[in-house]
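Saturday, quiet lab. Running sequence design on the structure tokens for the scaffold JK sent over.
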């Protein structure tokens, strides 16, 4: 059920036989089970292991199910955990009371195994969907907060530089004016790059970007990337070379593949010092091609590697020539690689360099 971990189900019942029956029934879900014999034990267990679903008996000693549910729903940390009441009390007012307390379902004893299993499956699926949506909303809210901060900062720098030129025109030397104009140009170019990536990412999230896979020859793709980055690389005396021994055929959306490689090569140039080397290579297997961009740059610390493709992580750094980065490029690469049915990864050693790779299929893709 859960993608990242097994779901945890807490069974709360004071009858050992009932717990045994429920445990056998729930084994099919490949879940982890926690057990409590009364309401107080259940509350203590929830503090240690936050379950994805609670099956809660009503009539128990020490603390009954109604009071247990009331306390769970009044606690900010546990109020969203779905609760299914299991009870021999079948009167309408008992069932209504259960729902008033915040239960998502009410199953009467003796229960039918298939019916209970179906309800458990439904509520675990709903729980997973709720958590996924909550995580996505949180990530995207944080992402847009980061982007708005970067944009405000960039436009603030441009505004300040323009103001310096306007107000200090009589006091600035020509060299100082030229330096400020160069700074404005660089900041404007970086901001435009950020906006373009942001717009492409937003369109990818809404499905507005048309996916048009076709047969691609990597030799031609590599040549185009090399031509587009020649001037920037030459300015830092960085050599870009291809390790492609023979032309390789892949399938993917041409514009997306070009954008992925442009971002990867731009990053490599940004974080490679003067006189460095960048190598674009491709390794063919049975059903895919692994494309890599390897540099001799400054590398990345191990604790940052897992954050680089995350939308809500602020892990950008300044390039070796003080180039500004915004961290959106790799996020966009990940999105487009996924659309093209591939995978992406990264290996890096501080002070020695970084290799970013992604895969593309060698068989035709369907438009989606």
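Result came back. Writing it out in full:
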């Amino acid at each position: 059920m859960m993608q990242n971990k097994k779901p945890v189900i807490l069974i709360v019942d004071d009858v050992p036989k009932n717990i045994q029956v429920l445990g056998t029934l729930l084994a099919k879900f490949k879940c982890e089970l926690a057990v409590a014999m009364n309401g107080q034990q259940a509350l203590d267990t929830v503090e240690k292991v936050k379950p994805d679903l609670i099956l809660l008996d009503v009539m128990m000693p020490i603390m009954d199910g109604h009071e247990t549910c009331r306390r769970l729903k009044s606690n900010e940390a546990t109020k969203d955990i779905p609760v299914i009441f299991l009870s021999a009390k079948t009167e309408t007012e008992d069932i209504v009371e259960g729902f008033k307390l915040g239960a998502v379902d009410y199953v009467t004893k003796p229960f039918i195994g298939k019916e209970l299993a179906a309800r458990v499956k439904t509520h675990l699926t709903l729980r997973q969907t709720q958590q996924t949506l909550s995580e996505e909303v949180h990530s995207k809210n944080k992402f847009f907060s980061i982007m708005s901060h970067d944009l405000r900062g960039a436009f603030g720098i441009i505004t300040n530089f323009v103001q310096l030129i306007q107000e200090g025109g009589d006091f600035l030397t020509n060299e100082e004016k030229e330096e400020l104009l160069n700074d404005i140009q660089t900041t404007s170019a970086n901001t435009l790059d950020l906006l373009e990536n942001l717009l492409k990412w937003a369109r990818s999230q809404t499905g507005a970007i048309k996916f048009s896979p076709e047969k691609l020859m990597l030799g031609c793709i590599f040549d185009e990337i090399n031509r587009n980055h020649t001037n920037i690389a030459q300015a830092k005396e960085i050599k870009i070379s291809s390790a492609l021994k023979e032309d390789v055929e892949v399938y993917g959306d041409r514009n997306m593949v070009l954008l992925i490689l442009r971002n990867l090569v731009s990053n490599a140039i940004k974080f490679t010092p003067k006189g460095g080397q960048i190598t674009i290579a491709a390794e063919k297997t049975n059903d895919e091609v692994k494309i890599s961009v390897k540099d001799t740059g400054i590398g990345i610390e191990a604790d940052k590697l897992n954050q680089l493709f995350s939308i809500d992580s602020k892990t950008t750094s300044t390039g070796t020539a003080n180039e500004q980065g915004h961290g959106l490029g790799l996020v966009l690469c990940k999105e487009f690689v996924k659309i093209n049915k591939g995978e992406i990864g990264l290996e890096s050693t501080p002070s020695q360099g970084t290799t970013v790779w992604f895969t593309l299929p060698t068989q035709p893709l369907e438009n989606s």
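Notes for JK: The CA atoms of residues 4 and 128 lie 10 Å apart. The mean pLDDT is 84. Ask whether to fix the surface positions before the next round.
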